[in-house]
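Fold this sequence, please.
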Amino acid sequence: MARARADVTTHRWLFGDQLGPHFLGPDHKPGDDGREKVLIVISKAAFRRRRYHRAKAQLVLSAMRHRAAELGDRATLVVAETYREAVEGLAAPVSVCDPTSWAGRRLVRRLGADVFPSRGFMSSDHEFDEWARQRGGKRLLQEDFYRHSRVRTGILMDGDEPVGGRWNFDADNRLPPPKGALTLGLPHPWRPTEDDIDASVREELKRWERDDGIAFGGEEGPRLFAATRDEALTALDDFIAHRLALFGPYEDAALTGDWAMAHSLLSAPLNLGLLHPREAIDRVVAAYADGRVPLSSAEGFVRQVMGWRDYVWHLYWHFGEDYVTGANALGAHEPLPSWFNDLDADAVNARCLSPSLADVRDRGWNHHILRLMVLGNWALQRGYDPAATTEWFTRNYVDAYPWVMAANVVGMALYADGGQMATKPYAAGGAYINRMTDSCKGCAYKPTVRVGPHACPYTAGYWWFLDRERDRLAGNHRLAQPLASLGRLSDREQLVEQENGRGDTPP
């Protein structure tokens, strides 16, 4: 696509997830060429397409309006029904960094924008494509991509070898929560102080509901996540100072009374584009180099940001636009029941599932182990439709976008792609939840019981899932042992009858 003439004022169009300084200027560095104005468009149609969690809508609109306020006269902020209406009404050349969705990329090209390559990740599309080509048809394993990225960037490397002699510290980073603890005992995470812009956004959302028929889900609450670059940098510093040291060991643990645990809470500002992953990684690695945090925690963070985040970003494009709608290897077609779809945590008795739903209802966020091993695990066991489940995650989480949730839900949580991403379904019974959380204490269900009024719905559901999918999963060597154990269950028929009769009743 032709570039605009150098002597013509152009507008850089910033989408709501492109709000950091690295999305301005002609290259990947924070920059300003002196001529470039900025266009920020709030499209009501984008909010009509999904019933977003109100915390998500509040965060995104707050971030966009704060960015426009920071840019002052340089920015044009337009509230319009559609992006097309706003861009065509500008009557000026527009440039844009490639958007983060298939639909967005088609749109900017139809509107004739000058498109720069995508930004905000540790690796480019070309670098991933070259790595995938060199695999020669082998599975695109996250671990292999992560190691390749470490070598390519030199991050946590000592020459050709990983610092500390190990590529990962997963074995050290799987501690259960401290026995008897209600929290990890860390300071409360930094929280932003809302201002007049936040107040105006709350009123704006109420007007949309009242006058425009735009609906939101979840509960209204205080804004918990960074909406400006300064806030994002403060949140990063707070994490490094107070939680990073314990992040590694307890990254897979959960406590009902500690919603944040030692997690960074940076996924939202990263995915809004307020932070570049390289600057977050550099500060974390510096904290390790200065002796402030252990290597296991620094490596765990680098793995999540450079390994996992980049990996799912590239898989979104690699697997194609029909990946979510076309992937259903396990033939899962159950609709989401109303209590799950509407975040009705109070209808649920299970002490792992109810608080996890309440987290989403009240904050639009919980950490990855609750997403995968409680909520995703439940959807997998119950055979919820993959596209509907992906949509549920996308609209309810403050840090979620189509590229985030495609491989995370379809591939990782639901195994709906038949193993393109994960090597086995991440199904688990109550024993895992009992080991890694404090949820089972005081629960009406017992993690060791499969059948009867005290049967754990996750334990029973695990075996029910294996029974239902045994033919499809028979060739997976990682499931050979549990499938053999399934055949030896003395109460198998009773268990299957029990779970077949559960229907969409909340557990």
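The two ends are 55 Å apart (CA to CA). Residues 161 and 346 are 51 Å apart (CA to CA).
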